[in-house]
User: Fold these one by one.
Assistant:
Number 1:
Amino acid sequence: MITVKSAEQIELMRRANQIVRDTLELLREHTKPGVSTLTLDKLAYEYILSQNAKPSFLHYNGFPASICVSVDCEVVHGIPSKRKILQEGQIVSYDCGAIYKGWQGDAARTVAVGLISPECQKLIDVTEQCFFKGVQSIVPGQTRLGDLGHVIQTHAESFGYGVVRELVGHGIGREMHEDPEVPNFGIPGHGMRLSAGMTIAIEPMITMGTERVDWMNDGWTVKTRDRKPAAHYENTVAITENGVEILSL
Ligand code: MG
Ligand code: MG
């Protein structure tokens, strides 16, 4: 079921998403070689609580932390740990969610640890471009999910990158994951239309090699099957009468 949000509800989601945005910025500032990912998780937890919000990932289906931290070939859902220490040259994806007055925010960023290769920087840049090209293509009431997915997919594949098929974006509101699914691939003219009042998380997950992924035995971490790097970039957006508002920027 698709839920349509009022202006007042979107205002609360705006605040939830600002908290997520600021948490991700804090994580970016603290990203450097030698930092334990558990330290970063604690930082995020404390910041979100200080903003009178709750970390939505903590205990979500049993997830043990406030953020997902996915390094290099880890695509998403990596678990912070005191033994998982950031190292120079890695790329690290932070995914974060917060609940403010019952409303959800969800966003992700991929960040360089120290100096990274030009190839990894390009992967990060193109993944962000995929998001923005997708958003810019949305005409409220006209664009369909297949059109949006096609724009994202076409941009990523023009660089020879893979688009993960088994994980997709989603509607968001009172629940973190609501209908509809928002794939990063698609066929133009297919799927439902994006119309005013819908709030969705658009989150390209782009790989340097194969789009195939493996689920790890920890029950969470998703890695690329060829173990080449992956990047993730996500924002929650609101479709309005006039266009698209990115709530987590
Ligand atoms: Mg997310
Ligand atoms: Mg999401």
Note: The first strand starts at residue 54 and ends at 55.
Number 2:
Amino acid sequence: MTMKTMHVGLDDTDSTRRGCTTYIAALLVEKLQGLGAEFIDYPNLIRLNPNVPWKTRGNGALCIRIKYNENIEEKIKETVISTVEEHADLEFRGTDPGIAFFKKAKIPREVEVFAKNAITGIVSLKDALKLLKKFKAEAVGFKKGRGIIGGLAAVGEALQNDHTYEVLAYRVPENYGSKRRVDEASIFEMDKATAPYTFNNVDLEKGRIIITPRGPDPILFGIRGETPEIVKKAFEMVKPLEPVERWVVFRTNQGTDAHLKRVEKLSQIKPYHPLVAKGIVSANPKIIPRRHVVFSIRDESGQVDCAAYEPTGVLRNFARKLIIGDCAEVYGGVRRPSQNNPLTINLEKIRLLRLAPKIVYRNPICPKCGKRLKSMGRNKGFRCEKCGSRYTNLRKVEVKIKREIGRGLHITSTRSQRHLTKPFRRYGMEKHRIMTKGLIEDWHFP
Ligand code: ZN
């Protein structure tokens, strides 16, 4: 009897009308434990590039990493396949589940690179299948099997650098689709008690809770934080007003900005690739229909439009105060180019590095009586309304106006942050070393 290691990646089992791949992972935690498998990590919830055009919802893939006795390997695979088959929304067009069974203890470098590319850019099913073959891994695809891409990407992202945790609590199936019932006051209290080690619990601007999703999926609520202990503690402080069927602590790349890749030049920007880029504001912000704000930045290689949409709230309000000449770093996803719009960055953050002086030109003061002069028309000089003097040789004077904004980082409002966006609360909390201690005692139920 030999102990073996396997990484089981899953993706694309849900649809806009039901399901959630994290729920299938939560079911598998219970089932695989029942079979005698040992978990070598919390289930990993890996958010992939949020800007790919064909994603279902949050674009989250899952990986379960286990050690097990060789003789239950077939049983494990059967259990995973039948659970996906039973719970995936297979009738939904565009839901193409995939499973990857990866049986190497150490993740090969090439699979890690594949995962990074799936998080920051675009990868193909062909690339995934090639890697699976090379490393003698197995994959099961349903329908078009696109989920194999995310499944393998989840396997390859072992979260060796910055990562966070999320405890997810699930509803009983009878309640799917109905309004979620959780005591709101307990959530505000939990946020206060666990800050700054949990994040994105509440939107303080609007005074709203944001741990409960909307929609028909099985999640009742999710709490994100820095350690398994803190999300567990936070979970215990929240009072659900409906039954919780099960809960699991996940380890994840949420809240880490893992999707953003720095580009050196604006000419390197590619559609669908989230990025960080630096440039000088080259067109003043304008407000376009539906209250979105658009401005442009340039560098020596090119120019790109940047859009802060209405739901980005505080970020939009900040963006509209930028002026030509400001130097800024922009963070965001690149939208599909269309005929009228070349490349546009959908902003998630702006870091204002340098402010341009804001200058206005005013009429000069009357040298005789001190009253501000009136213009007699372009290049025609000025006259004084008070003393009647006329001056043809005076010019307008430069006046420097105080800017309403300052240097520094500005992030989209909490309610419009993407799963991957690193919120303010996490700055300075980044983890740079792999976690080596074992799992906490109770990280799932049942
Ligand atoms: Zn005068």
Note: The chain has a mean pLDDT of 94.
